[in-house]
Amino acid sequence: MGLLSFMPNEKDVKKLQQTIKAYEENEHWQLYLWKEAEDVLGAIGVYIDHENNQVVVQHISVNPSYRDMGIGRKMIEAIRSIYQEKYSIMANDLTKPFLSKCD
Ligand SMILES: CC(C)(COP(=O)(O)OP(=O)(O)OC[C@H]1O[C@@H](n2cnc3c(N)ncnc32)[C@H](O)[C@@H]1OP(=O)(O)O)[C@@H](O)C(=O)NCCC(=O)NCCS
Q: In testing the pocket of ligand 1, which one of 1, 33, 56, 68 has its CB within 8 Å of the most ligand atoms?
């Protein structure tokens, strides 16, 4: 929850709680955590659109103390390697700048 709160659209606690609930309950919403040793350093959340064969990166966030070390890029690569065989990997308006950077 702390990590997702760094997303510009998740500053409001109620909105953030709804987002967490969707990741817990909606099978189309999947949240992956980047762990090193026992520490969670990053989070990346996707929406899986089976009908259109698209995976939309909705959230991506790295602990501020661990930024600019390549973790964000590695999370994008991991999502690509999991899904790219069957799905197009897309960004939303919020994640587009960083995804474009990773191309
Ligand atoms: C965006 C974010 C996940 C990047 O994670 P990271 O682990 O620091 O990224 P990496 O180390 O893999 O890549 C760093 C590069 O991405 C660039 N970058 C960082 N944030 C960026 C952004 N919002 N848009 C475009 N590029 C960005 C850095 O300038 C750096 O560029 P360089 O390699 O030319 O120096 C992290 O900055 C973050 O958690 N931001 C707050 C949440 C957020 O705004 N998410 C939406 C991003 S569009």
A: 68
Q: What is the CATH number of the domain that holds 35?
A: 3.40.630.30
User: Is residue 71 over pLDDT 80?
Assistant: yes
d(CA 40, CA 35): 4
Position in ligand 1 atom list of the atom nearest CA 64: 39
Identify the domain containing residue 8 by its residue range: 4-102
**CA 39 to CA 33: how far, in whole Å?**
10
Per-residue pLDDT at 72 = 98
Is-above-0.90 flag for pTM?
yes
Q: Number of folded domains in the chain?
A: 1
